[in-house]
Amino acid sequence: MVNGANSPLTVDLTGYRVAISAGANGIGRVMAHSFAYCGARVFVSDVDEAALASCGHEGMKADAGDPAQCEAFIDKAVNHLGGLDVLLNNAGIAGPTALVEHVTPEQLEATLRIDVASMFHMSRRAIPALRASGGGAIINLSSAAGRFGFPLRAPYAAAKWGVIGFTKSLSIELGPDGIRVNAILPGPVDGPRIRAVIKAKAEAAKISENEMTERTVATTSLKCFVTQQDIANMALYLASPFGATISGQAISVDGDMQTTM
User: Fold this and answer.
1) Where in the chain are the domains?
2) Which residues lie below 8 Å from residue 94, measured CB to CB, with a gap of 6+?
3) What is the pTM (predicted TM-score) of this model?
4) How far apart are CA 100 and CA 103, in angstroms?
5) Total Cβ atoms within 10 A of residue 30
């Protein structure tokens, strides 16, 4: 049930200076490895100190839910790398799995703060450095939930739709500076995060995890999960010269997802 790439796209990114939020775990970690594999210099943030210590890349502990820490991460990345060519806004949380009337204000606020507001704070701080480098790319992680309704996941969907609106608006603002801004919309990505979501939704629906897994992949034409490497490869493409005229786009990497469960 898992299709997709297992190795990085081969593009020459030698000398690129790349900052990746939440870059020590999951998709962010695969992105960091992939950019480094292609010759880029990488600086990551994460809240998980053990993951930071083991990821093999320079970085700092930073909570994406804290605007001051978002800005501090960008400042340190720019200082460490000697400038910035690519910002990957990858930080995000799944948020609650519940009907809207059962979601607390605190759960909603935390989801919006981390999943969309952090991108605003990091991008805002990074823009002068990207402009000084003569252009570059901002790549924001949205989700298939950013183009479909997503029952039981309303805070997450609201945030991911917000990412697309932010991406499009920022691309228009920064186009004259040669800074490209795009969003990647993963579908069901194989790994611990989707397994936790499937478990929670199975419990809410009172069905088995296997049945919920089957229902999840049934929403895609290719009947599969995608891999973390698939998402990283799209980021490599968008950051590279191959993506030089691509901006303001919300690009799905999802096995041709038709709806959400």
Assistant:
1) 17-253
2) 153, 156, 193, 196, 197
3) 0.92
4) 5
5) 22
